[in-house]
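User: Could you check the structure of this?
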Amino acid sequence: MAGPDIVSIGEPLYELNRQPDGRYLAGFGGDTLNVAIAARRLGASCAYVTRLGGDVFGDEIRELMIAEGLDVSGVGRDAGAPTGIYFVTHGAEGHVFTYRRKDSAASLMTPGDLDPRLIAGARFVHASGISQAISETAAQTVAAAIAIARANGVRVSFDTNFRPRLWTAGQAWPVIAEAAAQADVLKTSAEDCQCLIGLSAPADIAAHFLALGARAVAVTLGKDGAFIATASESWHVPGRAVEAVDATGAGDAFTGALLAELVRGRPLDAAARFANAAAALATQGYGAIAPLPRRAAVEAMAETG
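Assistant: Sure, the predicted structure tokens are below.
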């Protein structure tokens, strides 16, 4: 059965982003939701799998998903559980996240929430370390989704996205490593890998994940761009000079754009350059989702270098 290009699994969140005047700007986020919307704005068809609380925040997130054109057939509701919330503050060291997500509806996900036909008909299934960290059953759901994907020839995209407030590196690494080993596209960062495996050099990080079994590795480097590697080649994609105000969703913009280009049939090097431009553009506005760029803007930047 033909399905969406990308099925993304995880926890959507209601966002409150502190502005320079001290007020909080309401919005939306959640790493795998950011990826799905980033890819959708760039032309990919996307479905999202999660559970939302039976509250106003869940209502608004569902409305956002529909407005952005996501397939919400995999989105459940839990009247007795909350939708997660997070706050973004900004300082000299960059942005800081503060979460209110304990026992959220998304953390109640189980493998039984998955529609195997939805995943089997996709071209990519995407999840992250956060998708796994929010609960044991959520981690089981991600593992089940990956198993369905592998059994049906669907490519797997995985982002390590390690959050020490959710679990320790010792708890996280075996779970993350199992998913990473099955990834056709593995996205990580030097910051994540310093915590998880004690590596910070991009080439060493890529070699580590390729040895695990990942087929392609993208190590995002913030303003310095990204390092991309496969078993046969590697290269650095230089950073883009922009007036950045908030990097909240930049890594997710990169992943969403990379997947959107891969499903269009673009080679990995061209897809990575496009993704790098998308990530740079995403830092020019506040919030995770609102600044995610459209195709015309990304193509215009990508053509400049």
